[in-house]
Amino acid sequence: MTGEARARFERIYTLLRERICLLDYPPGMRLREEDLAEEFDTSRTPIRRVLARLEDEGYLRSVHGVGTIVTDIDIASLEQVYRLRVELSELIGKLSPIEPDEDAKRAFAGMKTRCEALVRTPSQRAFAQLNMDFFHLLMTLTENEPLQEFSERLYYQTTRIWLKRAAGEDGTEETLASEIGFFLREVSDIAAAVACGALESVGQIRRAHVAMSFARLKERAGEEVEAGPL
Amino acid sequence: MTGEARARFERIYTLLRERICLLDYPPGMRLREEDLAEEFDTSRTPIRRVLARLEDEGYLRSVHGVGTIVTDIDIASLEQVYRLRVELSELIGKLSPIEPDEDAKRAFAGMKTRCEALVRTPSQRAFAQLNMDFFHLLMTLTENEPLQEFSERLYYQTTRIWLKRAAGEDGTEETLASEIGFFLREVSDIAAAVACGALESVGQIRRAHVAMSFARLKERAGEEVEAGPL
DNA sequence: TGGTGCTGATTTGTACACAACATCGTTGGC
DNA sequence: GCCAACGATGTTGTGTACAAATCAGCACCA
């Protein structure tokens, strides 16, 4: 696969993955190859190429005669993914870190501004988008491509589940506001570390926040078990 | 994809990946979809599904009108992959380690025996196979699936290149014997650590050996640049 | 002699028809 | 009324023909 075909593949792949992460395609949703083929004005074949990759990476599961379903993750698997993600987070500052230039520093400052605006007018959707943009900005701090790739995998797998439980339909408006507050602190801390070029600190701060984020998620899940109907 | 289709997919995928890692398909080799289809008694379609995954994971590169070529890796990319691999190696003992039972301990002891036999009658092929088996045995020490998956990716990507340069046609018989010697020490050390259930030590020993292995690789590459025809 | 364009062969990428399979409603027997 | 078998419908998996792209060889000309 090369040239134009490759470009189209990447375009569709990135778009579908984003839809999954932002919960436009929530866990359990059924996709139809033919619908996607029509949307992207092609046949099923190239679509199936994309879906195959998304399935290999664990976002989807195709079942013969039924459809391709967006996966959900049980809390046990999520814990495994999170533990690894915590470890990898720290490596941003240790493996081939890129000294941030003025543009990069401005970009982090801009993130903080967006986040402050979000605190004033909370929105689940805007939060999800900001969270994702911030992640991608973080990734520009290392030039270690395998680390980038694996971090992306872990990010997309965990964040969509986290988003669903912490700030989605399951959660209240208070939990959304609370999570945005925590996120503002993370962005502020990291922006400050970037501003003085302390990339190792960036990794450590990120690591701490990812770990805390998961701890809150588990705590909330525990409450549900106690109070919930299930 | 499910049931029988899934099983066939996994079978072909695993086999082809092993061929790539063991250098049956050396870097630069061109594969033909139709040949593979014939070998596995099916059409191009399921084969393409496998090749797509191998391409996504970086082992192959399909070029329209040319063929699918086994990839090579430049020393710079290899360095990035190795750095990450060094970090992940240590995590075996830290993320959901599984306390080895008697069978597991025997398996590690058996590896040591095989390795000692290999010292007496060196063989590039047998070394490659043993190295791979040992890796898979190591992976049984953690139940963290994402860690297993990522470790596998990094292992297969680096080992085939390492094997080619350190013990393949490029290397002399002395380097092969030397590498087998180093490997015996690694296997011995790790088997000892496993025997007393010190999984954290297993990770640290492994980390050290992976790092040293890459250091030797780079040193040898440096010599080539000085002495070689290129 | 060297270079340039063409043509045929080869190989991957795409489209489409059909097979395999799962689901659900219906119908018949009891 | 209930349950089981069956068929209709919808969806993914497979096979195959064809399109698109690359490359090597060769003829042809300056």
What does this structure look like?
Two copies of one chain form a homodimer. Chain A has 230 residues and is mainly alpha-helical. Chain A has two domains: 4-70, Arc Repressor Mutant, subunit A (Orthogonal Bundle); 75-227, Four Helix Bundle (Hemerythrin (Met), subunit A) (Up-down Bundle), CATH 1.20.120. Chain A contains nine helices and three strands, in the order αβααββαααααα. Chain A is globular, with a radius of gyration of 19 Å. The mean pLDDT of chain A is 94. At the A-B interface, helix 3, helix 4 and helix 7 of A face helix 3, helix 4 and helix 7 of B. Chain A binds a DNA duplex (30 and 30 nucleotides) through helix 3.
Indicate the mean pLDDT of chain A.
94
Instruction: Determine the most extensive contact between two protein chains.
Output: A-B, 30 and 30 residues
CATH architecture of the largest domain in chain A: Up-down Bundle
Q: What would you call the structural class of chain A?
A: mainly alpha
* Main pleated sheet of chain A: 3 strands, antiparallel
Strand order of the largest sheet of chain A: 1-3-2
* CA radius of gyration of chain A: 19 Å
Assembly level:
homodimer
Report the principal-axis shape of chain A: globular
- Beta-strand content bin of chain A: under 5%
**Distance between the amino and carboxyl termini of chain A:** 47 Å
What portion of residues of chain A is helical? over 70%
Instruction: Work out the count of structural domains of chain A.
Output: 2
Q: How many helices of chain A?
A: 9
Q: Work out the number of β strands of chain A.
A: 3
Uncertain residue ranges of chain A: none
H and E order of chain A = HEHHEEHHHHHH
- At the first level of CATH, the class of the largest domain in chain A is Mainly Alpha
Query: CATH topology of the largest domain in chain A, what is it called?
Result: Four Helix Bundle (Hemerythrin (Met), subunit A)
